[in-house]
């Protein structure tokens, strides 16, 4: 049996949550492998809407097992709040969520450090979600982090205090005013709940055992262009968002990876700072934001919008080895007269099909233009229902990427999908 991996191929918010929810009936197990509450994965079904930050998007399917893997960073307050909201909607979670002992914890002081470090960067800030992601992964890599498994040990309080004191010293160095007491109280209560109510496991053993019984769906967060190695560094997140992250974030061998499902929007969005070659600053971009409701699921910030960028998409497909593509939000383009796609870049007059190393490279997108379909598509359920112009757009993407587009999403609801 294999681990099939869902990853975002752009700058996040491609619609991964919806897809994991749609695919889950085929899998018993869904596992998040990286990121943390910087993620906001939206699911809509039966008139209900949920935004998940840490809980895997398989949670709403009966009898599913949802694993928060070792590669994830967990804020206990956000996790417990998320579970409360799901339960309040009358949906059970008991026994359905397992947490890796090796997942690192986000402390209140990580969140404060995130804010302090962003403030210190001034105009060069990353535009972080301020959830403490960068500082938590920094502590993981510098070997001073606190892990979920530590809450089960008698010396947890000392370990917590040692790490907190390290953070306090850093905050003093940055001359950042803060008070942590209230957040700390809330955090400790959530840790207590975690200890009492949660199954904290050796997830790498569990995942490999479960894999003998059936395939597993691995759920990525963020997108390939925010990857710490391959994204537009330093305007990236702090984890491996590409397919390889599923191996280290769950403890599965590369030979166990099956399908690599790459999710992309029919256009592009980005939240936070950093290069975005096809960004639109005009009425067309405004129309995308309005019709796509492009406001962050986690922070509410307006997302930057622009045309589909095939240079970036081909790069992401290459790095992760996507075996199939899922195109999201094509309905957002239903009213456009013309649709552009970036097929190459020009940098200082020279054409290239490579994504540049320099974040300030003067990239001019080279566009190919398509006629818009100008028809509503959200009621389409089969390929035959879709307008010819939309199918032409999809075939062009397939030809440009060499990867089949297996799925077209025409609305936020679970049911608004066309399988090819
Ligand atoms: P994720 O982080 O990749 O899971 O994506 P987000 O949930 O942050 O953002 C995707 C947004 O688009 C959410 O509000 C979804 O409900 C919505 N969405 C997903 N698929 C579609 C679609 O095909 N059409 C439209 N109009 N909205 C969609
Ligand atoms: P999902 O899983 C979109 C962006 C932030 C910022 C940068 C670093 O919902 O697709 P961080 O808080 O990680 O230090 O922020 O990455 N970012 C996201 N953008 N979707 C996400 O997650 C994101 N997670 C982080 O806006 O630019
Ligand atoms: Mg999101």
How would you sum up this structure, described in words?
The protein is an alpha/beta fold. The chain is built from eleven helices and 20 strands. The strands form five sheets. The protein has a ten-stranded mixed beta sheet, sandwiched between helices. Strands 14, 16, 17 and 18 form a four-stranded mixed beta sheet that branches. Helix 2 (76-88) crosses helix 6, helix 3 (108-121) crosses helix 4 (133-141) and helix 3 (108-121) runs parallel beside helix 5. The longest helix is centred in the middle third of the chain and has 18 residues, at 156-173. 48% of the residues are buried. The model has no long low-confidence stretch (mean pLDDT 97). Bound molecules: guanosine-5'-diphosphate, 6-O-phosphoryl inosine monophosphate and magnesium ion. Guanosine-5'-diphosphate is lined by residues 8, 12-18, 39-42, 44, 292, 297, 328-329, 331-332, 409-412. The site of magnesium ion has 6 residues, from loops.
| Share of helix, binned | 25-40%
Distance between the termini: 24 Å
Report the average pLDDT across residues: 97
Shape label: globular
Largest sheet: 10 strands, mixed
Report the C-alpha radius of gyration, rounded: 21 Å
């Amino acid at each position: 049996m294999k681990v099939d991996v869902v990853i975002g191929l752009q700058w996040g918010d491609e619609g991964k949550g919806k897809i994991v929810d749609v695919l889950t009936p085929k899998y018993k197990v869904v596992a998040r492998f990286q990121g943390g509450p910087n993620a906001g994965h939206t699911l809509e079904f039966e008139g209900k809407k949920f935004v998940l930050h840490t809980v895997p998007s398989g949670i709403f399917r009966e009898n599913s097992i949802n694993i928060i893997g070792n590669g994830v960073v967990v804020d206990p307050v956000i996790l417990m709040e998320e579970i409360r909201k799901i339960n309040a909607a009358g949906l059970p979670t008991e026994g359905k969520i397992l947490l890796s002992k090796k997942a690192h914890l986000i402390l209140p002081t990580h969140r404060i450090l995130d804010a302090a470090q962003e403030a210190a960067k001034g105009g060069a800030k990353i535009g972080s979600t301020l959830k403490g992601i960068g500082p938590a992964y920094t502590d993981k890599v510098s070997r001073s982090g606190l892990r979920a498994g530590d809450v089960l040990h008698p010396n947890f309080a000392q370990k917590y205090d040692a790490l907190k004191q390290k953070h306090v010293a850093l905050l003093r160095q940055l001359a950042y005013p803060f008070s942590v007491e209230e957040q700390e109280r809330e955090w400790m209560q959530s840790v207590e709940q975690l200890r009492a109510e949660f199954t904290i496991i050796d997830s790498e053993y569990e995942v490999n055992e479960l894999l003998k019984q059936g395939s597993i769906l691995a759920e990525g967060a963020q997108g390939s262009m925010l990857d710490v190695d391959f994204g537009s560094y330093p305007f990236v997140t702090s984890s491996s968002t590409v397919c390889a992250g599923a191996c280290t974030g769950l403890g599965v061998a590369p030979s166990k990876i099956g399908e690599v499902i790459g999710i992309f929007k029919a256009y592009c969005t980005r939240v936070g700072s950093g290069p975005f070659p096809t960004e639109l600053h005009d009425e067309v971009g405004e129309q995308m934001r309005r019709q796509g409701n492009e406001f962050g699921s986690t922070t509410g910030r307006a997302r930057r919008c622009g045309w589909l960028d095939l240079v970036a998409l081909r790069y992401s497909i290459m790095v992760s080895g996507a075996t199939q593509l899922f195109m999201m939000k094509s309905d957002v383009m239903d009213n456009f007269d013309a649709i552009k796609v970036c097929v190459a870049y020009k940098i200082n007059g020279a054409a290239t099909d490579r994504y540049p190393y320099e974040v300030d490279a003067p990239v001019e997108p080279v566009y190919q233009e398509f006629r818009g379909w100008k028809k509503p598509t959200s009621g389409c359920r089969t390929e035959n229902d879709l307008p010819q112009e939309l199918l032409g757009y999809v075939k062009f993407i397939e030809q440009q990427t060499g990867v089949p587009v297996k799925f077209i999403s025409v609305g936020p609801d679970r049911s608004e999908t066309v399988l090819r």
